[in-house]
Amino acid sequence: MTTDDFNKIYNTIPKDPGVYRFLNEDDTILYVGKAKNLKNRLSSYFGERKDRLFRTQLMVKNAERIEFTIVETETDALLLESSLIKEYQPRYNVMLKDDRTYSYICIKKEPFPRVFFTRRVIRDGSIYFGPYTSKVRTQIIWELLRQLFPLRTCQLNLAPENIAAGKFKVCLEYHIKNCQGPCEGFEDLASYNAKIEQIKNILKGNFGAVIQHFKGLMNAHAEKMEFEKAQAIKEKLTAFEDYQAKSTVVSSSIRDVDVFSIASDEKEAYINYLRVVNGVIIHTHTQELVVNLEEEEADLLAYTIPLIRDRFNSIAPELILPFEVQMTDKTLTTTVPKIGEKRKLLELSLKNVQYYRAQKKRDDASKTKRQSPAERILRTLQADLQMSAVPMHIECFDNSNIQGSNPVSSCVVFKNAKPSKQDYRHFKVKTVIGPNDFDTMKEVVFRRYRRLLDENQPLPQLVIIDGGKGQLSAAMESIVELGLAGKMTIIGIAKRLEEIFFPGDSVPLYINKKSESLKLIQQARNEAHRFAITFHRDQRSKNFIDTELNNIPGIGEKTAQKLLTHFGSVRKIREALASELIEVLGMAKAKVVKAYFDKEVE
């Protein structure tokens, strides 16, 4: 992928956090990366940078296109990047691959639940919060929770019957006030569970009262000039605020689900798919549909979901959808979430499909504004010839004669940089005697534009004269006589060095030999030459036939045409049998024609 390729999509890339993928021509993922700002990060791969690693340059060179997924936070981008790397193991991520798992806080399903850090999620009914990418900041929260809500840390089985039997004794944690001794019944289950509920609220982000409490403490320490204590509380507050963000790309409570959302208009629909396996998004995809009739969005989803699931081999038992959809597979569970983690997944899908549609609209709009090849060539020609208008209508003239016989001229017409053959014209020279290219050019140019003026037809923006300064000057005499000077650009092109001449200027213009504008001029010149040569050849053949048959006494023009129509050529007439001639002309005229050609043989 080149810098020019990237520049074409630059304006469509968002500044949101997200994950990007470089893919090759086979749609194989070469590299997965995360970004706080997608536009800025992707821009760093292109342009002139001498410090860019060769490995990175090679990856970009091998890439065919870029995909990206928008997420809510930089943390979400980190988590999604990790899951995609582990799922696809891209070639250029091998050395950067992160095999570690992230931390969770587990509230164990047991009497007097323990609360602890873990990197393993066990589906035993326990509640997990996370994952957390910053162990340090999470540790600050954890220490705060332990100060506010003393809990047990032992692994004893505190079943009611064991406590009643007096099997346990309090440990050091009880004596240093880190635990309130539920093992000996010093703390009842109701009060313990009340603390667990408060911890759940804080881990869910519902800790407004806690923040107000610590802000009060921080301000009190600041008033007493106890800045170190105030700073310590400020760090705890910062940890709280960072902690509130809930990941939308990794969940401890959701297992295998497929998430679908849709955005549509009158002509097109876009369906976004998030594949979640073991609580982790491992794939994102947006499918485009052409809407032929007035299909409902529910019908479009019902039709497309099985196709997408089959394409990605999904066996997820649950679908998360934006509205109710009647699925043919009745074993699937469909959910239209209003709140919670599933709702956040749906909102993430909706955000991506809406952005995809907006990006597609921008792309389509830019394509319509983008110059077509014809427009690009004509604008280049306009600039090369310093014309005031784009030469949408071009005419080119050429003469043809052999030793002065049958002089003819041609005028070919190009519109929008393409030959317009229905507008081609040829001319039999009427006023010029002998081989005189200059006078011939003067005559045909005059006749052409006198006719256009009389019929009130549009004039071309550019007129090309095949020849050097002499033919150009002759053509200009007619242009001036018709009062068209300054209304059209007139140029001459000399064959030898492809020199471009302007009226009244002895110094030729040389256009780059590889220029598209010169190639268009040459194409018009060659087409005019071809058309003139063809017409000249036809005229010579016609004159030869006319002369040959008209020499036969008693054979007029109609009889000659009758013979040519039947036999096709003079040679075949000469070789025809008497019976064949009698069949076409009758006895009398057949004898005359036969006698003429027999006499030629003698």
Protein described:
The structure is a single chain. With 602 residues, the chain is an alpha+beta fold. It is elongated, with a radius of gyration of 44 Å. It has five domains: 3-96, GIY-YIG endonuclease (3-Layer(aba) Sandwich); 103-207, no CATH class; 257-367, Nucleotidyltransferase, domain 5; 377-540, UvrC, RNAse H endonuclease domain (Nucleotidyltransferase, domain 5); 551-601, 5' to 3' exonuclease, C-terminal subdomain (DNA polymerase, domain 1, Orthogonal Bundle). The strands form four sheets. Strands 12, 13, 14, 15, 16, 17 and 18 form a seven-stranded mixed β-sheet that branches. It has a five-stranded mixed β-sheet with strand order 9-8-7-10-11. Strands 2-1-3 form a three-stranded antiparallel β-sheet. It is built from 20 helices and 18 strands. Helices cover 45% and strands 18% of the residues. Helix 5 (135-148) packs across helix 10. The UvrABC repair system catalyzes the recognition and processing of DNA lesions. UvrC both incises the 5' and 3' sides of the lesion. The N-terminal half is responsible for the 3' incision and the C-terminal half is responsible for the 5' incision. It is found in: Cytoplasm.
